[in-house]
Amino acid sequence: MGTTQLESVPEPKYWHLKTVLSEALDSDFAVGEVLPNERELAARFGVARATLRQALEQLELEGRLQRRRGVGTTVAPPRMGVAVGAETDVWPGAGDDAWQPVACEETTPPAAVARLLDTDPDEQVHTVRRSRMTHGQPVAAELLYVPAGSVPGLTAIGAPTGAAHARAVLRELQRLELEGQDRAVELGSASAEDAKQLDRLPGAPVLVLTTRYVAEGRTAAVAVATYRADTCRLTFGETGSVQITDAGEDRRAS
């Protein structure tokens, strides 16, 4: 990391410092490496420690840095990549699925999900909870809503509870012939439950990915996945599909 002091710039000094630090993270540091302490960094760039802290806080918000108690400020791992506009339609849990089943319970889905499923507002459905980890940290949590009509064989097999119950629902769902799926991504804020699962503060920015699975001419299941916004990066390909790609190879803004 260079020692050049910041000169007069039209943008806020902390923002310019953030840009300089971001470029240094790409060229001078490895994932997990601990940054010099605040006093040393402030001296190198000729700024007040308050200005430095603002820049570091912004980089942490963007997912470039992690602050670990007892360790210090380290370079965060690359953002996780997962295709949103995948060309091949697959059921949740099928193939090379990075999600881990956590539990399953009978719940009444949110009104918006009930409308997608075309179920009565008070009708309970199988709700599978799944989580996704990368580099040892939680990056996404998912709720998969499956009406009883989509998994008619579930009762007959006497599915156990917990993660085993979740896996049983996924297996039964995969017996259906998937005809298609559509997805939508929107920016949201972490609820208290999201924050708990994702190790973030309530209100932190998240990306909400809703997927509707179609089989036998109807909606067979709906998945609502909540991603930490600081771990994902959206790009738009030539086909117009949306993808969340690995920013480790290219951190340039899209």
CATH class of the largest domain: Alpha Beta
> What is the fold-level CATH name, i.e. the topology of the largest domain?
Chorismate lyase
The main sheet comes to: 6 strands, antiparallel
Query: Quick one: how many beta strands?
Result: 11
Q: What would the average pLDDT be, to the nearest integer? A: 81
CATH superfamily of the largest domain: Chorismate lyase-like
Low-confidence stretches: 240-254
Q: Report helical residue fraction.
A: 10-25%
* Series of H and E elements: HHHEEEEHEEHEHEEEE
SS element count, helices: 6
Give a summary of the structure in a few sentences.
The protein is of the alpha+beta class and 254 residues long.
Structure report:
- This protein folds into 2 domains: 63 residues, Winged helix-like DNA-binding domain superfamily/Winged helix DNA-binding domain (Arc Repressor Mutant, subunit A), CATH 1.10.10.10; 163 residues, Chorismate lyase (3-Layer(aba) Sandwich).
- The protein is 25% helix and 31% strand.
- The protein contains 6 helices and 11 strands.
- Strands 4-5-6-9-8-7 form a 6-stranded antiparallel beta sheet.
- The chain is elongated and about 65 Å long.
- The C terminus is likely disordered.
